[in-house]
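Cross-check.
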Amino acid sequence: MDRGGQLALFVDRDGHTIAGLAARMRARAGEFAKDPVGVLDVLQPHMIAAAWARIDRLLLESLAAATQECPEGPARDLLGLVCDLFVYATVEENAAWFLEHGRISAGQSKEVSRRVDELCAELAPHAETLVDAFGIADAWLDCPLLDRA
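Predicted model, tokenized:
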């Protein structure tokens, strides 16, 4: 729940995936001149994983900064919940990585999923406010696809 701990977890994942990609690239450096496409095909999943880890870290840093800069009050509290949901949902989506690398335990993984559900329930009453914050035109919101209630 601690924002500093959340940031540290995302920074760690970012650094670890970049270091792993770099090691894999160095290991295949000799092959690159002969078969660059083949090497890129092999490395592509690691490149994508490293890119997502970096994106997730940058998004969390931005969300945390925006939350911190927001004046105290209901808007800041709501933004904090959105930030927490982003963290927990990202960890849940990448639970295999966090488990395989010993960053969370199986029990913590279950707790993460439970917390995602709690945060969604806590944010549900604020759905209209959150959608309004994106400035989506009413014409886009008034479409048959959204009438699934």
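The chain has a mean pLDDT of 92. Helices lie at 3-27, 29-32, 36-69, 74-93, 95-100, 106-123, 127-133, 138-141. Passed to J.P. for a second look.
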